[in-house]
Amino acid sequence: MDRDVILREVGLRDGLQGHGQFMPTADKLRWIGAEAAAGVSEIEVTSYVPVKLLPQFADAAEVTTQSLRIPGLAVAALVPNLKGAQRGLELGVHKLNFVMSVSATHNMKNVRRTREESLAEFRAIVAAIAELPAGAARPAICGGLATALGCSYEGAVPVPEVARWAAALVEAGAQELIVPDTVGYANPRLVKEVFRAVLAEAGGIPVAAHFHDTRGTGLANLVAALECGVTRFDASLAGTGGCPFAPGASGNIVMEDACYLLESMGLRTGVDLEKLVEVRRILAETLPDLPLEGAIARAGLPRGYAPAQGAAA
Amino acid sequence: MDRDVILREVGLRDGLQGHGQFMPTADKLRWIGAEAAAGVSEIEVTSYVPVKLLPQFADAAEVTTQSLRIPGLAVAALVPNLKGAQRGLELGVHKLNFVMSVSATHNMKNVRRTREESLAEFRAIVAAIAELPAGAARPAICGGLATALGCSYEGAVPVPEVARWAAALVEAGAQELIVPDTVGYANPRLVKEVFRAVLAEAGGIPVAAHFHDTRGTGLANLVAALECGVTRFDASLAGTGGCPFAPGASGNIVMEDACYLLESMGLRTGVDLEKLVEVRRILAETLPDLPLEGAIARAGLPRGYAPAQGAAA
Predict the structure, then answer these.
(1) Is B302 within 8 Å of A249 when comparing Cβ atoms?
(2) Three-state DSSP state, A76
(3) CB contact under 8 A, A299 and B215
(4) Which residue of B has its CA nearest to A151?
(5) Per-residue DSSP letter, A202
(6) CB contact under 8 A, A151 and B298
(7) What ipTM is given for this predicted complex?
(8) What is the per-residue burial (b if ≥16 Cβ within 10 Å, else e) of B271-302?
(9) Strand B42-47 vs strand B74-79: parallel, antiparallel, or unpaired?
């Protein structure tokens, strides 16, 4: 299927990780299956972290294995370190999303490492993939630059610092970069500065954007990144992912709203928006305490709305 | 005060017109006074319409008269016809915002006139202003093009139609144009098409944007209009203005969030964001049933946030 942009579901990881209630494995798989059936081509299905840290991902192996059976779906998982990556290699996951923070303080709080130590860990993951036996399936390895658009400890993060760590990840073997607005500080002007700087260091590998809508700027930031040439966007169904320490703060940009925005701009996402909206039912049934955000689910589509037809701008 | 962009409060008109409960006049005036004190330079304070149609505006004369006493505040009011405009002339309001719809169907449903009849009414208002005695204060007369970005009866509205009616209002004497996304159908690509077309017909008079956030695209649309050179934006405190026939649908773009977005992009609004957020209390106290939207009020400002300093892009 021809797509102008790729929307990647991260709700199963980013959306669920801060939610206190365990989502039963069968429901996670219903969610993944329904989104894949709606045309979502890539899903970050879990995180390979110690169960005692994040019990939500106790079923990481089962979720990964079952997701890998869905034809055509790219199955990704977040990994904070080599140990997590090794689990991914054993499971045969398609893509490892490694994350480090550009902010030294945030990196230390988040993974208890200096940034240099995180980079060394990333290199070790790249080496572990290289050492897989000939003929073995190799996962793609992506480098994530958390706090690239601002940090709740350090405030503004200098753009040259973002560029420097982007270059370091590329040099170390990243096949894709992910630039997240981890705490929802971005604005469209900053997005353009940061993404242009990162794209200049990317050496042609894809650069993806991961926005949180904490301060209402999420979709405006998406459009700003799009104008820089970015075509891969993380989002979560119903905008799950509110930070547990900021009640009411919204999480990732809403998948359905991002899909609507892009399609209405003439950009093909490959996703059937009406089927996508239907998937919200699974969340509502399974996790009744999880707040479901989203404007399109609430307001409905405009009269005469038609998805993009391939004559994209 | 130097401003790069002008945010205009329309909540007292657009926000309240669909709300069933009358907001006491004293509270409206507290709201207006507090926003003016926060630096908001222009407020659409009421609508000159028959009381039996919109009892919310039964106090239009009192609200106008008292608002006009606030130093430095531009006091605007919506007028659907000559009769309403004549009330504005009597009261000495600074600005008359006349509205007609580009969609013939919407215009008929909204004001029971053909578009040609609305244009004739607009000409009559311009003539009435011209006939004011020499030396009398003359209000500015603005032409609003409702449904310019889509219509809930007709669906997509052809851009050449928008341009045609923009040109007609300019030729008839409009001193400013207002382009509203009446039903929240706009996307950034369409915004750029429509605003470029309208700006091409505007002959140098200001063109303002009025977005609803019904489908989550409000701030993205604002940025798109900004990129076309638009610097006047309508918004409402706490995003009031949800359509009474679409429960939960949000109304105008949220004033506080628009202020945050613009200031964080380095554009001076002249508005003190923290004081603006405080004004929400007046709404909460007075109209407890009115849903208060807004990300900044919920999430707070980023660490290290500073308003724009005058080195705007």
Answers:
(1) no
(2) strand
(3) yes
(4) B303
(5) S
(6) no
(7) 0.94
(8) bebeebbebbebbeebbeebebbbbbbbbebb
(9) parallel
- Using pLDDT thresholds of 50, 70 and 90, give the confidence band for residue A18: confident
Q: Nearest-5° angle of CA B303, CA B309, CA B310?
A: 150
3-state secondary structure of A142: strand
Nearest CB to B184; choose among A266, A299, A304: A299
Question: What is the CA A137 to chain-centroid distance, rounded?
Answer: 22
Q: Which residues contact A113 (CB under 8 A, 6 or more apart)?
A: A100, A107, A121
Partners of A213 on chain B (C-beta within 8 Å) are: 295
CB contacts of A158 in chain B (<8 Å) are: none
- Residue B212 φ then ψ, to 5°: -105, 150
The pLDDT tens digits of the residues spanning B5-48 come to 999 999 999 999 988 899 999 999 999 999 999 999 999 999 99
Q: Does B224 touch chain A (CB under 8 A)?
A: yes
Q: How many CB atoms lie within 10 A of CB A54?
A: 16
First CA to last CA distance, chain B: 18
CA of residue A171 relative to chain centroid, distance:
22
Q: Which of B10, B56, B13, B18 lies closest to B35 in space, CA to CA?
A: B10
| φ/ψ (deg, to 5) at B96 | -110, 120
User: Residues near B144 by Cβ (< 8 Å), separated by ≥ 6?
Assistant: B78, B97, B98, B99, B100, B177, B178, B179, B180, B210
How many of the other CB atoms lie within 10 Å of CB of B131?
A: 9
Whether the CB of B196 is below 8 Å from some CB of chain A: the reply is: no
pTM for the whole structure: 0.96
* Bridge pairing between strands B140-146 and B95-101: parallel
Catalytic residues of B: 243
In the predicted model, what is the mean pLDDT of residues A112-132?
97
A261 contacts B190? CB cut-off 8 A = no
| Shortest Cα–Cα distance, B41 to chain A (Å) | 23
Residues with Cβ within 8 Å of A43's Cβ and at least 6 positions away in sequence, in order, are A8, A9, A10, A12, A32, A35, A36, A67, A73, A74, A75, A76
Q: At residue A201, does pLDDT exceed 60? A: yes
Asked if the Cβ–Cβ distance from B156 to A264 is below 8 Å, we say: no
Q: A59 by DSSP, 3-state: which?
A: coil
| Residue B64 Cα distances to A163, B11, B161, angstroms | 54, 15, 34
Longest dimension (CA), chain A: 55
Q: Is A151 a catalytic residue?
A: no
CB B139 within 8 A of CB B93: yes
Could you give the domains of chain B?
Answer: 6-299 (3.20.20.70)
* Closest to A220 measured CA to CA, from A192, A250, A251: A192
CA distance B89 to B86: 5
CA distance to partner chain A, nearest, from residue B156 (Å): 7
User: For B218-247, what is each residue's pLDDT tens digit?
Assistant: 999 999 999 999 999 999 999 998 655 554
